[in-house]
Amino acid sequence: MANLIIQHWNGPLPEWARLATQSIEKYAKACGAEYELVTGYPLGKERGVLAQKLIFLDQKYFDFDQVLLLDTDMVATNTYDNIFNYDGIGRLHLRGMESEQGSRNGRKWPYYWQKDWPMFFGNFIKMDKFTRTKIAPFLPKSEDFVKYKHEGEEPNDEIILSWMMRQASWFMPAQVDHPRFCDLPEEAASNATLIHFCGGRKRNIIQWIRQNRKDIL
């Protein structure tokens, strides 16, 4: 069965995102996987922007064996290695799992949070078909996002995915080799294949691409 790398963005792509997603699309082809950049509100505007990333659980992708969701601030390096050959879902948000106050997921949306239940960072999530089909039915209804909205922001993909896993009684703590596939530039392994330029690091993507990925300029 085929594999898929999927990303989501709402609105026009800024230059850093255009270059970053271009590197991921090229990486997908190298892995023999399909690639899709989803835009807009495929899960409905009521669920907010961040939750749209959960589109990777949609039934229309059930024909794919493995689906990898990546944030648009993920960049593929020239150190190629096929992520689909490795086990692991993503990187656990350990601090956020330990305490309700350990991350905004618990602080802002306590209804969906439970101590020590697996919660993965949203920049990298890789799931096989069996896992996706098991948890997909538990996507909260649109009105639940509005009901539990707090401080002007709907629950995000990280906390909702953790809640869906819990509803499905599907305990999946396996982490991917995150120093090589989903870590920050300053923490990533020297042979990292994928790097996460989150937060203010996004401003460094264009320069990084110019220095390291002239093949996609």
Protein model, in words:
With 217 residues, this protein is of the alpha/beta class. The chain has 8 helices and 7 strands; from the N terminus they run E-H-E-E-E-E-H-H-E-H-H-H-H-E-H. It has helices at 15-30, 94-98, 104-108, 129-135, 142-147, 157-167, 178-181, 205-212; strands at 4-9, 34-39, 66-70, 74-76, 90-92, 120-128, 194-196. The strands form 2 sheets. Strands 2-1-3-6-5 form a 5-stranded mixed sheet, with helices on both faces. Helix 1 links the parallel strand 1 (4-9) and strand 2 (34-39). The longest helix is centred in the first third of the chain and has 16 residues, at 15-30. The chain is globular. The mean pLDDT is 95.
Report helical residue fraction: 25-40%
- Report the biggest beta sheet as strand number plus sense, adding barrel if it closes: 5 strands, mixed
Measured on Cα atoms, how large is the radius of gyration? 17 Å
Q: Approximately how much beta-strand content do the residues carry?
A: 15-25%
List the helices and strands and how they pair.
Blueprint: E1 4-9, H1 15-30, E2 34-39, E3 66-70, E4 74-76, E5 90-92, H2 94-98, H3 104-108, E6 120-128, H4 129-135, H5 142-147, H6 157-167, H7 178-181, E7 194-196, H8 205-212
Parallel strand pairs: 1-2, 1-3
Antiparallel strand pairs: 3-6, 4-7, 5-6
